[in-house]
Design a protein that fits this description.
InterPro entries: Ald_DH/histidinol_DH, Ald_DH_C, Ald_DH_N, Aldehyde_DH_dom, Aldehyde_DH_Superfamily, ALDH_KGSADH. One of its GO terms (molecular function) is 2,5-dioxovalerate dehydrogenase (NADP+) activity. The structure is a single chain. The chain is α/β, with parallel strands linked by helices. The protein folds into 2 domains: 262 residues, 3-Layer(aba) Sandwich (Aldehyde Dehydrogenase, Chain A, domain 1); 180 residues, Aldehyde Dehydrogenase, Chain A, domain 2, CATH 3.40.309. Helix content is 38%, strand content 20%. The protein has 14 helices and 23 strands. The protein binds 1,4-dihydronicotinamide adenine dinucleotide and 2-oxoglutaric acid.
Length: 527
């Protein structure tokens, strides 16, 4: 498919004329064509108008049709074939196996949401039948179901050009909820975005849906992204990126005459807790696995293990020695954009320059735009005294914090900000300490895991990829897994509506065959 450098506004392909966006081939540093036109405010207005017009007919579709649409997007992405992978490799610098895996995850995610839509459980139907004889007052007939919020703005992430971008988890869950999507392409992978956008556009057409169900805009600066969040027709925002970007969009959304939710996944340093028994039993082994997780994908994951906590002693020293050796051996890796590479280099330099921070090891030198892994250490006293030591460094850098004792480990945990994940390494002897840490960890993170690291998020029903601020803007939800749909829904209660006016999902005869909560009890449909 020839790339045109055009945005997609409903069924149309439109060349924006507000500046240009060009991709960089991250392995050569050269610009790759075509040049993409940045959209204008009037393009944005048109995309939002179409999304608003599509909302009612799209949400009214039978669930089966919505599910088939999600599956059609998945197939259209697969039909792009190797062209998608090649373009994506060029724009992102990410290797083929990673991107093939990510495509599988993207397609799997869309198919998972198709199942979620068919199942209908996300409607969360509750029926409390009327109790006309109840004393002292009768109870009215109450019926609840979730409805979609309205058009959603999705900001593609730079670090997952497929699974968190144009047709990634935010888009899949918003479409599954019944919300049209206006996506804002990330300028790091404009060609990949156009290819995937065209796949979604084709699925819209093939399924006979209103064209405004999906649009894709390009922004040569920040005006289109900001305008999108401010547009009164947009009712929610999905974002993965920097803390600064997420906070800016949250500010715009909150300042609207009608504020809207922004689901921003921002910064996280994902503490790894090395408990004494585990350090004594297998410190060096954990260190090697840790460096593997640290350097995976040049460390460009929001789940990257950026902080290691342990109690000082022989065990922690054995871990550090083995981790140092593995980092020294780690090859440099191409980063996503020149900007991200530069931010990584300056982040590492700043960290190394802090009082009381020791550079333990740096990975091998690389070529242009290749980040070198970095391992640093400090004491808990220093960590507690310098808040800046908690700043996310996006890339393969991690800070080991030597704690004096259990009490100081707990103080450090109290001091850290909200996180996506915490990883515990333990043996049975560590269970009493782990049991004491768990309530505190629950308050700090969205996912607690044992024996591994946070990278490699499973797309599943029980997954939480979220956490307290600043890891996300709203720790009550997740951006990965089927629960992500709940971000784009809100409950409506129907009180004493005549049967003929009730939505199908709420009718007594249960024509959709939904599992519903009847008078508080789960009722499965009779076949
Ligand atoms: N924690 C995480 O998961 C990630 C963190 N990052 C951090 O972000 C840095 C920059 O990477 P990017 O991916 O470009 O993130 P970014 O936050 O700068 O941009 C993400 C998206 O939001 C838009 N955006 C950002 N600020 C905006 C504003 N003020 N107004 C309107 N639109 C705005 C951008 O155009 C882009 O589409 C990295 O060096 C890293 O520090 C990046 C990716 C993921
Ligand atoms: O590690 C993963 O699979 C997902 C990480 C993520 O969501 C991110 O880096 O933005």
């Amino acid at each position: 498919m020839e790339l045109l450098g055009e945005s997609l506004i409903g069924a149309h392909s439109v060349r924006g004329d507000a500046g240009e966006i060009t991709a960089t081939d991250m392995t050569t540093g050269k610009v790759v064509g075509p040049h993409f036109g940045g959209n204008t405010k009037s393009d944005l207005d048109r995309a939002c108008g179409l999304a608003e017009a599509a909302f009612e007919p799209y949400r009214a579709l039978p669930l089966e049709k919505r599910a088939v649409f999600l599956e059609a997007i998945a197939q259209a992405i697969l039909d792009l074939g190797d062209e998608l992978i090649q373009r994506c490799m060029q724009e992102s610098g990410l290797p083929r196996p990673r991107l093939e895996g990510e495509r599988g995850r993207t397609v799997g995610q869309l198919r998972l949401f198709a199942q979620v839509v068919r199942d209908g459980g996300f409607l969360d139907v509750r029926i409390d039948p009327a109790l006309p004889e109840r004393k002292p007052l009768p109870r009215p007939d109450l019926r609840l179901r979730n409805i979609p919020l309205g058009p959603v703005a999705v900001f593609g992430a730079s670090n997952f050009p497929l699974a968190f971008s144009v047709a990634g988890g935010d888009t899949a869950s918003a479409l599954a909820a019944g919300c049209p999507v206006v996506a804002k392409a990330h300028s790091a992978h404009p060609g990949t975005s156009e290819l995937v956008g065209r796949a979604v556009q084709k699925a819209v057409k093939d399924c006979g849906l209103p064209e405004g169900v999906f649009s894709l805009l390009y922004d040569s600066g920040t005006a289109i992204g900001q305008g999108l969040v401010a547009d009164p027709r947009i009712k929610a925002v999905g974002f993965t990126g920097s803390r600064r970007g997420g906070l800016a969009l949250m500010g715009i959304a909150a300042a609207r005459p009608e504020p809207i939710p922004v689901y921003a996944e921002m910064s996280s340093i994902n503490p790894v807790l090395l408990l004494p028994g585990a350090l004594a039993a297998r410190g060096a082994e954990i260190a090697r696995a840790f460096v593997g997780a640290l350097t995976l994908g040049a460390g460009q994951f929001c789940t990257n293990p950026g902080l290691v906590l342990g109690i000082d002693g022989e065990g922690l020293q054995a871990f550090i020695d083995a981790a140092k050796a593995a980092v020294l051996d780690a090859p440099a890796a191409t980063m996503l954009t020149p900007g991200i590479f530069n931010a990584y280099c300056s982040g590492v330099e700043t960290l190394a320059g802090h009082a009381g921070v020791e550079t333990l090891a740096r990975g091998k030198e690389g070529t242009q735009f290749q980040g070198r892994a970095g391992l640093f250490a400090t004491t808990a006293d220093q960590f507690l005294a310098q808040h800046a030591l908690q700043d996310e460094i996006f890339g393969a850098s991690s800070l080991v914090v030597r704690c004096r004792d259990e009490a100081q480990l707990i103080s450090v945990l109290h001091a850290i900000e909200g996180q996506l994940t915490a990883a515990l390494h333990l043996t049975e002897a560590d269970h009493p300490l782990a049991r004491r840490l768990l309530p505190l960890l629950e308050r700090k993170v969205g996912r607690i895991l044992v024996g591994g690291f946070g990278t490699g998020v499973e797309v599943a029903h029980a997954m939480v990829h979220g956490g307290p601020f600043p890891s996300t803007s709203d720790g009550r939800t997740t951006s990965v897994g089927s629960l992500a749909i709940s971000r784009f829904l809100r409950p409506v209660c129907y009180q004493d509506l005549p049967a003929g006016l009730l939505p199908e999902a709420l009718r007594d005869e249960n024509p959709l065959g939904l599992t519903r909560r009847m008078d508080g009890k789960v009722a499965t449909p009779t076949a």
